[in-house]
């Protein structure tokens, strides 16, 4: 994933860290779900951009 073009990569970074955490806890079903979400974001450029949009408070 080209992170330089995305507005805010904090949510993707958090998703990756959650994948590592559930893997360490041997929660393989949860890991599979999170990996599916990451792969979906990787394959879908418009969704990836929408997912990383900065939230307006």
From TrEMBL:
The Piezo non-specific cation channel cap domain covers 1-53
Any GO molecular function? mechanosensitive monoatomic ion channel activity
Q: Which domain of life is it from?
A: Eukaryota
Q: Which Pfam families match?
A: Piezo_cap
One cellular component (GO) term of this entry: membrane
UniProt protein name: Piezo non-specific cation channel cap domain-containing protein
